[in-house]
Structure to design on (377 residues):
């Protein structure tokens, strides 16, 4: 039994030794194929993004002009209202009493004028007394008109078409013209305004990019902008930048821009936020796939295929992205052949078999640049 075990062990040892010998005798693997492409200059669109606050075309605060208790609220939050529609009714009983007293004063003054007029006509009294009575009548009418107008302020209507905002007060609340919060806000949201800011450097680049002798001419040359919503979806309707503040805010160092977007389905609401995307066309620039670029110690590098199909890492400078490509401003020139996939498997002076990238199944990360021609050894 022991003799069989020893024999089996010897046989296994011989097999392992033979296997190792065969592995040592296997020739080293040759160059591996890697997708490459030739660098060309192309036109690209770069999107600059700015955080924006959205407001309706008109945001009107509804405030009372007189003091009083809210007698009736005729609308609810989020309700669509028309211009002139009744919103609130304030209690005006005290004002009505004042109006009654003022009206009595008008009647009394009118009686006095009527009494004195025939006496003046018959020259029994001087005309001065009649003119004095007329002045008192005019004063009484003015006082009555003021009180009557004040009573009218107790009926509050909407000054614009729009959507009712929050209602911080309830029926029975005492309000006044000096109340901290308005009764509500009516927002006309058919056209939404997106307000965003550019710092001084961005403003300078904007003015250099879009030509024009003045702001109006520059805005004519600005393309339509898009709006990214909070769920990262893009709003279906494009907008337009319509105004630029003429001054730089000295406290923030920024200038305010305003873009406008039509809002026919009331998808956008005042007080919400979004991101305005401004497209900028760049002519004849070098584009490389983002997945071809790797970083070492904060520097961006890419592998360039050189003589003998050996790769060499090259430091590049990029200026933004266009889709899934980086825009390269330094480090590459037209005609260079770059490795577009598998950079993590390479080292400097590694020999590869350049492979036409378009011969591989197309993926979302593929670039539109022309493919490279494999270098013959």
């Amino acid at each position: 039994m022991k003799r069989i075990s020893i024999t089996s062990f010897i046989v296994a040892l011989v097999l392992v030794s033979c296997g190792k010998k065969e592995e040592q005798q296997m020739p080293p693997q040759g160059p591996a194929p890697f997708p490459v492409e030739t660098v060309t200059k192309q036109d690209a669109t770069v999107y600059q993004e700015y955080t924006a606050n959205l407001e309706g075309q008109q945001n009107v605060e509804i405030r009372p002009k007189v003091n009083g208790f809210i007698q009736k609220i005729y609308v609810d939050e989020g309700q669509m209202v028309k211009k002139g529609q009744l919103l609130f009714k304030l209690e005006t009983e005290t004002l009505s009493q004042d109006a009654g007293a003022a009206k009595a004063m008008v009647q009394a003054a009118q009686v006095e004028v009527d009494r004195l007029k025939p006496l003046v006509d018959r020259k029994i009294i001087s005309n001065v007394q009649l003119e004095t009575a007329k002045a008192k009548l005019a004063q009484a009418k003015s006082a009555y008109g003021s009180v009557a107008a004040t009573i009218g302020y107790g009926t509050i209507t909407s000054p614009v078409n729009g959507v009712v905002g929050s209602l911080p007060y309830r029926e029975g609340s005492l309000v006044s013209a000096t109340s901290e919060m308005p009764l509500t806000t009516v927002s006309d949201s058919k056209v939404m305004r997106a307000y965003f800011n550019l710092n001084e450097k961005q403003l300078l680049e904007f003015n250099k990019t879009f030509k024009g002798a003045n702001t109006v001419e520059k805005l004519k040359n600005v393309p339509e902008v898009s709006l990214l919503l909070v769920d990262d979806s893009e709003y279906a309707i494009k907008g337009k930048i319509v105004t630029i503040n003429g001054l730089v805010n000295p406290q923030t160092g920024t200038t305010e821009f305003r873009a406008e977007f039509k809002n026919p389905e009331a998808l956008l609401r005042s007080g919400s936020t979004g991101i305005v995307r401004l497209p900028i066309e760049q002519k004849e620039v070098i584009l490389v796939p983002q997945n071809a670029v790797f970083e070492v110690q904060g520097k961006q590098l890419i592998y360039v295929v050189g003589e003998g199909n050996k790769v060499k890492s090259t430091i590049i400078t990029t200026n933004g992205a266009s889709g899934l490509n980086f825009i390269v401003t330094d480090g590459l020139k037209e005609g260079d052949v770059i490795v577009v996939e598998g950079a993590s498997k390479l080292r400097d002076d590694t020999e590869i078999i350049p492979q036409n990238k378009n011969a591989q199944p197309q993926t979302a990360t593929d670039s539109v640049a022309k493919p490279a021609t494999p270098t013959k050894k």
